[in-house]
Amino acid sequence: MDGGPGRAFGSVFIGENAYGSRGPAHANRKNALRLEIEVLSKNLKKQFVLSLAVALLAPLVAFATATPAIAQAAPEASTSAEATTEAPAKTAHKVHVVIITNRLTYQPPTLVVHVGDVVEWINKDLYIHTVTSTDGKTFDSGNIYPKRSWRYKAVRKGTYDYSCTPHPDMKGKLIVR
Amino acid sequence: MKFHVKQAVAFAAAVMCTLAFSPMAQAQGSAAPTDPQIAEIVVVANQIDIDYAKLALKKSKDQNVRSFAEQMVRDHSTLLKSVEGLATKLHVTPVASDTSKSLEAQSKETTAKLKALKGNAFDKAYVDNEVAYHAAVINEVGNVLIPNAKNAELKSALEGAAPLFKGHLAHAEKIQASLNKN
Ligand SMILES: [Cu+2]
Q1: How far is Cα B179 from Cα B175, in angstroms, rounded to an integer?
Q2: Which of A18, A87, A148, B53 is deepest in the core (most CB within 10 A)?
Q3: Chain A residues lying within 8 Å of B171, measured CB to CB
Q4: Could you tell me the sign of the dihedral formed by the alpha carbons of A121, A125, A130, A135, in that order?
């Protein structure tokens, strides 16, 4: 149950999928990697768009001084080029917070969210707790240390009961609509 | 095995009747504990569980049992620290009582029995004892320590610790059920 110190600290981790028995540590790394790649490719694309814009604009700029028409052209180009990568980020999903209290409860004990929303569990207790779906596969935070939190992105509709591995009488429910 | 029977009786009694039949309650007698005595009982009770867990970490190879024992060391050490911190803050110096002495004597006996066991037999005896012990502690805290605590902060600290013991009991019972399947 309680993994070693290598297991999910979770404060920056946003889980996206069911990772099953592979565990959160793996998921964590995988996600971190994916995030990095996403950021990298976004930066590359931005750079590409920028240089493209510069390349296209340079002759024009050389020709004439800036006109409003040119000033508008650049942002337009960049918007269309980035439309596919930017779209998910622009859809603002809600972030919900569940507090793990020093009375060993999840507050609120039942939470209703929509697909795409993010839930953040904040451990305000002195002890390590987990957020572990009782189906044994949908999500498992691993150890959430005191004053740390763990985030999960709801991807699939359903009702998920969860509990704390070290304190199995701590129970919560996540409903994804 | 005598040990098992004794623990099973202690556990059954603690759960079925809310009658206080436990090492602690037996020694309790009629005298209500004072705050310094309550503080010492809590300190001793924590230390005993840490020691059982350390023994389990030496002897057990079962991953669930080891994880549980690691958690007991961690959680009870944290609790012990906060109790000691509170006692210092409140200028309450823990004082031994018949209850705390009986707890220590009982744990010596249990430790000797556990030390003589190996493998699966050890795992089962350790976890059975954890179930019985936490049930007894919950009983003691709820029925004796909290009602008798004079200092409001001490009382509320005890009330705050109760859910932790219940969590440990639930965890121990879960492992107990899985060990009994094997
Ligand atoms: Cu917990």
Answers
A1: 6
A2: B53
A3: 165-168
A4: negative
Question: Distance, in angstroms, between A167 CA and closest chain B CA?
Answer: 4
Cβ-Cβ contacts under 8 Å, A167 against chain B: 164, 166-168, 170-171
Closest approach of chain A CAs to the CA of B31, in angstroms? 30
Q: Are B154 and B86 in contact (CB under 8 A)?
A: yes
Q: How far apart are the first and last CA of chain A?
A: 29
Chain B residues lying within 8 Å of A128, measured CB to CB:
71, 74-75
DSSP helix/strand/coil, A152: strand
Question: Among partner residues B67, B79, B171, which is closest to A167 by beta-carbon distance?
Answer: B171
Of all helices (H) and strands (E), which one includes residue A107?
Answer: strand A106-107
Cα B168 to ligand 1 centre (Å):
9
- ipTM for the predicted complex comes to 0.81
Per-residue pLDDT of chain B (182 residues; tens, 9 = 90+): 444 444 444 444 443 333 334 445 444 455 799 999 999 999 999 999 999 999 999 999 999 999 999 999 999 999 999 999 999 999 999 999 999 999 999 999 999 999 999 999 999 999 999 999 999 999 999 999 999 999 999 999 999 999 999 999 999 999 999 998 86
Cα separation of B114 and A165, whole Å? 26
Residues A44 and A102 in one domain: no
Q: Domain of A27?
A: 7-64
- B2-25+35-181: CATH homologous superfamily? Ferritin, core subunit, four-helix bundle (1.20.1260.10)
A159 membership: H or E segment, kind and range: strand A158-163
pTM of the predicted model as reported, rounded to 2 decimal places = 0.68
